[in-house]
Amino acid sequence: MEVEGLRFYSFPTPEKLASMSIEDLRKCKLSLNKARYVKALSQEVLKGLSLYKLETLSTRELYDVLTSLKGIGKWTAELALLIAFKRWESLPSDDLGIRKAFAKIIFNKPIASAQEVATYAERWGMYKGPIAYYLLIYYEKFLRHQ
What keywords is this UniProt entry annotated with (predicted)? Predict the structure, then answer.
């Protein structure tokens, strides 16, 4: 679609992604493994994995389903919970940027462990994800290059 001289593209359907060759997916700048994972996930959707039904699951159940899918590990699942599913209690505590932000802003040291981040963030309850995200943005904007 073109609007005011700008061209916009839609995201391919699961059918289109599943039918693409790994080589074609790699042309989209995906690594070999990521191309395989995208293809496998689109095939799961075609087999009946309902992205809408996933929204009805508890956060724990959703995490378990996501991590059962090939190519989706802890970090990806936690980030998907936070960003795609708006599960604000989710926190990708293994994320290096978040660990550095916590280290600099809260712990006053070079790097924080994932466990330190997770433990500290518990005090924020169901809003720990967005709060950690704001810390990350503050760190990136004002502190990263100090």
Answer: DNA damage, DNA repair
